[in-house]
Design brief:
Blueprint (H helix, E strand, L loop, with lengths): L2 H8 L2 E5 L5 H11 L2 E3 L7 H7 L2 E5 L5 H17 L3 E4 L7 H13 L4 E5 H7 L6 E2 L2 E2 L5 H12 L3 E4 L3 E5 L2 E5 L12 H14 L6 H21 L5 H14 L10 E3 L1
Parallel strand pairs: 1-2, 1-3, 3-4, 4-5, 5-8
Antiparallel strand pairs: 6-7, 8-9, 9-10, 10-11
Helix pairs in contact: 2-8, 2-10, 3-4, 6-7, 8-9, 9-10
């Protein structure tokens, strides 16, 4: 069975502890691909939700001390129930708080995928990075960054940029689809993290191809949305992107451009 077909039959439950700014956009995008998102903020639900969940997204975009405690409890429950975790270190390197939170959670919990933009992931690898808010201003090779993060943590690492790169035990895979309007809307990367979690959650074990397909499907839908916008501007693009995530299926992946290093 193809991934989108399976997604829409199984409706995997993905718990999203994510950026407050993007919850509505993320939930709509998840529903469009066929996943079932829950944007829980209640710590006492952790064990019950993880008994039913297919995946957990942890995004530190608007983290505070209370939310960090929630993330910790959700990740512990996910560990106990074998639920794969996607970790998005939004803004890593921009403050000591974000660095401490990320390093602590990654040290104490097993994650299936670390996903971030070039600036965040370069800083996570231990190298210098210049940050502008939560946006990257790096021009560094994403494949090299992904490989550096993988070597440091021993966890599959996805770095987004002009070229997206995924590093796993099998090497580095690059993906070049996408559109510039993705960088003009808030939450584009946050939604990708959630979609990656849903794709991983439909696999019995972690699969490199599940992440590659998630990135490629998302980026191809972005290309289609931009091409159909009557006005090529962010507001129209957001609506078009949700529509394309809903309207397309596995056949779209035949147009993906993927390479290996």
């Amino acid at each position: 069975m193809n991934r989108l077909e399976r997604m829409r039959e199984e409706n995997p439950l993905v718990i999203c502890i994510t950026n407050d700014v993007v919850k509505n956009f993320t939930a709509n995008g998840m529903l469009a691909i066929g996943a079932s998102p829950i944007m829980s903020g209640e710590i006492t639900e952790s064990e019950d939700l993880m008994k039913a969940a297919s995946a957990l997204l942890i995004n530190i975009g608007t983290a505070d001390r209370a939310k960090v405690h929630l993330m910790d409890e959700m990740m512990e429950a996910a560990d106990d129930n074998g639920v794969p975790i996607v970790f998005d270190p939004v803004g890593f390197g921009a403050s000591r708080f974000r660095v401490d939170v990320t390093e602590d959670l990654l040290a104490r919990h097993k994650v299936a995928l670390i996903k971030g933009n070039a600036g965040e992931m370069l800083a996570l690898s231990g190298s210098e990075s210049r940050m502008k808010g939560v946006d990257s201003v790096e021009k560094t090779n994403t494949a090299e960054i992904a490989e550096a993060v993988y070597r440091k943590y021993g966890v599959p690492a996805l770095v987004t940029g002009e070229k997206d790169a995924l590093a796993t035990e099998h090497g580095v895979t690059t993906m070049v689809n996408g559109h510039g309007l993705q960088g003009k809307i808030t939450g584009s990367g946050c939604l990708l993290g959630a979609i990656a979690a849903a794709f991983i959650g439909t696999s019995e074990t972690f699969e490199r191809d599940a992440v590659v397909d998630a990135v490629s499907y998302y980026n191809l839908c972005a290309e289609a949305a931009a091409g159909k916008c009557a006005i090529p501007a962010p507001g129209s693009f957001i609506a078009g992107l949700i529509d394309e995530l809903y309207l397309n299926d596995d056949t779209l992946l035949e147009d993906s451009i993927v390479g290996g290093l």
